[in-house]
């Protein structure tokens, strides 16, 4: 789940908003972490205790609702995956000088190879974990090199100069929005971690996953803040790359290639796996052929990249749109949590329900606000 969240959009969104909001972006990160935990702990617990995937839970709440939710998730996952494939191509371009298109194709083939292995789930888990640690380690190095004003960042995290709803919605959307939170929830079901007895471990895992993604977000925020605080201007065509290069020279630029590629290819794997997990239960034929559906999903994303590209504004926009999907998905899960035909004798904690309702209301309000005022400004 964490490495699904940390993709090209994650890197771009964090960099763009840090450059705009400076140290006050720390407040946005803090708010997003609180919302992320509230959303994800609710969703993962309900999936685990019902022992069903989200689309089947939604269909139990209201017939047909699962198909609607699946359509939203798959569409968002495909849009994100095109950006992920593009990011993988950009990473290989930085590392080896090959064209982004060729790098994207090679990365797509690698991702497909993971799902051709008999123990695909286990290989996917280990692959994403290793690359996740590589990303965080390299970003920590660049952060220290950038020498950020940590004291100011801490102060503005609690007393910001400005509050940006678009940034909050985008960060939440990029961390637990759309398909991302279900990448972990559905993987738990497949791995057999389900039922009431598994809830303590499920809850710990959900918070841990948010923690990993948030640590990466904080380190990248401080790295960007350190660079822009020194008066450097970031390259509008590739903001995160310029952060690594300005902070650590050509070595930093190569490090960015590794981080971008690792972030992109792990997100390709996560998006494909999760998107297909939303449709595989709809018929025995889809269930039997889910591996080939996943491979096709990656192949389509790779082919579309050749015609679509990867503009910075689109990556930010997709994150905010995913943030709009979250209140729908979480709202459905909260309703399901109180239906005995879905969760049996399980009693969902009242405080978690209230926490979830607050997240649904706040994300709905901020999401509508960004649609009216925030998103159009990205394209001015």
TrEMBL record:
The keyword NAD belongs to this UniProt entry's keyword annotation: no
Topology in the membrane? Answer: Multi-pass membrane protein
PANTHER family xref list: SOLUTE CARRIER PROTEIN FAMILY 11 MEMBER, TRANSPORTER PROTEIN
> Which lineage?
Bacteria, Bacillati, Bacillota, Bacilli, Bacillales
Q: Which Pfam families match?
A: Nramp (PF01566)
TM helices/strands, residue ranges? 20-39, 60-82, 94-117, 129-146, 166-185, 206-233, 253-279, 291-308, 314-337, 349-372
Q: What's the name of the protein?
A: NRAMP family divalent metal transporter
- Supply the alphabetized keyword list: Membrane, Transmembrane, Transmembrane helix
Q: Where in the cell is it found?
A: Membrane
Looking at the keywords, is Protease present?
Answer: no
Q: Please name the source species.
A: Halobacillus campisalis
